[in-house]
Amino acid sequence: MKQQALEALARAKEIDGGRKPRFSRWCPHTPWPKQRLFMSCVEREGLFGGAAAGGKSDALLMDVLQYADAPSFSALLIRKTFSDLNKADALIPWAMSWLTGTGAHR
Question: Do residues 61 and 94 make contact, with C-beta atoms less than 8 angstroms apart?
């Protein structure tokens, strides 16, 4: 039931001017339905809640990497502290592992 609701909302957003996520070469896997829905958001801000290890940070990184091949691309992902970004299962190590060997640079 929940899956059907997410798919229906995703279809409605596509029909109603939403954007389809671009799955770029920078992302090592395909996003889950809830992540795809978040990534298709056209609003300036989006909320994606849930328990720890629910894929929120993963979705954020995939979302900004959709446009990493654009010449004017830039992104800023913020956490409360640097250690929140640099933990073993946080954004910096993920980004480094995803982007190593791809030609991406700082």
Answer: yes
Mapped onto helix, strand or coil, the DSSP state of residue 97 is helix
DSSP string, 62-89: HHHHTTTTSTT-------SSHHHHHSTT
CA-nearest of 61, 57, 69, 58 to 25 is 69
CA distance 1 to 89: 31
The pLDDT value recorded for residue 4 is: 62
User: Both tokens of residue 51?
Assistant: 């328990």
Contact 18, 40 (CB under 8 A): yes
The pLDDT, as a whole number, for residue 15 is: 43
Read off the amino acid at residue 72. S
Q: What's residue 81's pLDDT?
A: 92
Q: Enumerate residue ranges in the chain where pLDDT < 70.
A: 1-2, 4-24, 106
